[in-house]
Specification:
Radius of gyration: 14 Å
Low-confidence stretches: none
Number of helices: 7
CATH architecture: Up-down Bundle
Shape: globular
Number of strands: 0
Largest sheet: none
Distance between the termini: 35 Å
Number of domains: 1
């Protein structure tokens, strides 16, 4: 896995967590801008067809899939709308691909309720 690919994905979860955990509406725009900046970095290196950056599933896919699941589950719940991915066509394709994969379906055994329960607790800290 190339260093540029790892660097492009490093800041995603931190930005996502800060956005989800934020309870001060006036900070949401700034935090969303930061999150979209991280998504832009990912868009730049994402293959857009199949696994994130390789022909086969890699550890990076195993790291990203649950984080994207959290984004898809927690953001609409806590922020009342999903993140608009219109400007991220390769990420949109990747998310569809990975969520439909057997690898994801057979290993993602935590429900939306579990995700929301965990982030509800994190938002209170």
């Amino acid at each position: 896995m190339g260093e540029d690919i790892e660097m492009a994905t490093d800041g995603f979860f931190g930005a996502l967590a800060r956005f989800i955990k934020n309870t001060e509406d006036e900070k949401d725009d700034q935090l969303l801008t930061s999150l979209k900046s991280e998504l832009s970095k990912m868009e730049a290196v994402c293959s857009g067809s199949g696994w994130f950056a390789t022909d086969d599933i890699s550890y990076l896919d195993c790291e990203l899939a649950p984080k994207l699941h959290i984004m898809a589950t927690a953001v609409p719940h806590f922020k009342s709308a999903p993140i608009d991915l219109e400007g991220f066509p390769k990420l949109q394709e990747y998310i569809k691909f990975v969520f439909a994969s057997d690898a994801f379906k057979t290993t993602c055994d935590y429900t939306a309720e579990t995700v929301l329960w965990g982030w509800e607790g994190a938002r209170k800290q």
